[in-house]
């Protein structure tokens, strides 16, 4: 910078201050003090690259509109990023580092330390972020900005450490007596900082920056996240070594540093300006011509008048995923999206989707396939993800995420040691850091990642920045229960307001669920608290419903339907009664009843599979699955039976899942003489591409029951024994009773509630016909044609569905369910990003009023959005009594302290298992092994130490683990 020119403009006293104000200490800036103006220009330079190479076309267009015309958004965005740390030009920040404080005081910028200390004691959160919000608010007002423009800008500065304060919060604590904000020459220096930055990024001054349109809150939140991203990149001392002389600070120098950092980190956007795919593109992407339902979806999104919501309802095996991915490509091209997020119901379903999305993107351009991020807590055990990481790994190298300023252990960014989760260096290394995953251009993960963006948590703006400018695809949305739906609807509100295209998929969506999705998205698009939409019901199946908010008009909803690509299967549905012990029965009575039920299923399968074939059995609890597996293993032998559930270690579960998909998946090459039985829990219910000849399942709510039916006779051309060429389903897990409601297995009722089980059982028992002709106890269900009617019948309000003798119990169950649903919805509201009555607010001020309501780590967030019984994960190890050495489950030695050598780390990490919720209290005392303390992967992991026989005592529970049955209570 030309210091002489600065002296002429601002005076020597102010320039002396500019020459000493520090942005980062020497310890955090590569050994040299980073002057504040240098860091602000570094951030501006990063923002310029983000605009050119990272922001989606839709985001750039939206900012252009805010700034007043094409091309004007660039300057506004860069300026917003540049001024984020202007609050560091205050005693509140400058006092925190002794060396820097001495230089600042020597330049004439002084404060009364006892008053500053008193102010901090009154409000410890009044730091440079809040100070910056106050300064920007005052100085932009002085510059002549309109009040409504000032009102949305200052929270972006005040909230860049992860939480948005109220206007009352940012006012300086009275006990500080203006010694945290600064008085006298401090005010002139603060004006100069804002003016210098404004000029360096291309404006004549702050007055010229003023926008002309107030952006939506969703766009404000997205921009806030992008500001944080720019700040974090510009804070990486590997590339932004401090500049400690004002003459050495320049916009040009910052740009050079930013380019080096950008290239070294491998940062970039998605597909950029994507052309609308041509008529033959679908076949190029997926190797087949589109089916009628797939063509219908593509034509529907091509006809949308704006970015909006697409609800695809189609049978299992119809090709919904391919239709959704191609629709995402069309929507991105039409509405300026730069990437995609695909959200799945579970980690297990995310893994195969990761492979499918990579293949799809690779068919567009090979470079895209290597830029897909898998985002869930167990991705380290996905082989394809690991291989992708290793391709970009420089041997032995790791990096610590840039300090995410504002965390309790280093709130001011002055400490010298590294901070952040250690991650391997990969092609997409920056996006692997904590809270950054959604910022990657192409992401596959659990739906939880989307739901987290609807929670009032720190740095939620990073999640919105990641979702904004993408197309969002959500599979199996019917799996979101009442509690999770609160977060889903909140997320859809924000996405609707942001103009993010969303495609949701389901085979068994209840009409009320469809209506809730439409109203949430369209209410967001209209920026209103409530919106009632008259959406016509689909007149066929498969169907697609599209909805968007037209410019200057109201919501638009269109519905299409077509025929399935294959004829209905006539699925025989039979009830297999099971004796259900009463609530006061003894353990012995329960065990005998379970043994009897298992034997009956064994006899059934022996008959059904007499000529060979494959069977899938789905139980509603791990204990029931393990018990049945023992029975079938004794009956058929271990080679003909497999067990799959969630209480195997993650490594073993991955092996078993792969084996089941290989044996029962498409092209599995099954034997024509042998038989195979897979006993599973709900893991096999959805996104599990297997094809069984016969299905035995515990009763479940109708939509989930139909999902299970979708694993039956799934693929055409599969050879089946003559006796199994008619698809048959045997439903068990309940006891029909003459003239009154049935009794259900306790585990099923605890999971699903009595209300929906009763209504489903009524259809199975041949009560009032919810499914049309032929639905009954031993009837035939035309699948998939009858799916919508079956779901609507059970989830509708027809009280006559239940037989007369059931109705009193049914009414009591309905009332209890409604009460529980209201309570769960109310519980969810405490975690929602926006409270009731707040959706029409115009700025982000106070968005985090009351403080963040959920922790920032994966476990705390998942607990917030899933409302299940709290459970914990443990790492299983063994310890022999002879030498006291800890060992892996396979017997490889660790040490007497449990130290993990690099060659066995993967094996130890693969030994993670989630305990039943009933074990949570007993597991509270479990800790890491002594040798794990400080380990980047194991430092916070609880160890469950088994004896040589694989057993241990955990509180009042005796537990055992082996590779055949998994974890069980003994």
- The amount of helix comes to 40-55%
Distance between the termini: 74 Å
Question: How large is the count of helical segments?
Answer: 35
Query: For the residues shown, what is the average pLDDT?
Result: 90
Strand content: 5-15%
Poorly predicted regions: 393-427, 767-777
Task: Please outline the major beta sheet.
Answer: 8 strands, mixed
How many β-strand runs? 28
Structural class: alpha/beta
Q: What would you report as the Rg, rounded to the nearest angstrom?
A: 30 Å
Strand order of the largest sheet: 5-8-4-9-10-3-11-12
Gross morphology is globular
State the main characteristics:
single chain, 7-stranded mixed β-sheet, 35 helices, globular, 970 residues, alpha/beta, 28 strands, 8-stranded mixed β-sheet
What would you note in describing this structure?
There is one protein chain. With 970 residues, this protein is an alpha/beta fold. It is 41% helix and 14% strand. It has 35 helices and 28 strands. The strands form 7 sheets. The chain has an 8-stranded mixed sheet with strand order 5-8-4-9-10-3-11-12, sandwiched between helices. The protein has a 7-stranded mixed sheet with strand order 15-16-14-17-18-13-21, sandwiched between helices. Strands 22, 23, 24 and 25 form a 4-stranded mixed sheet that branches. A hairpin with a 6-residue loop joins strand 22 and strand 23. Helix 10 packs across helix 14 (217-234) and helix 14 (217-234) packs across helix 24.
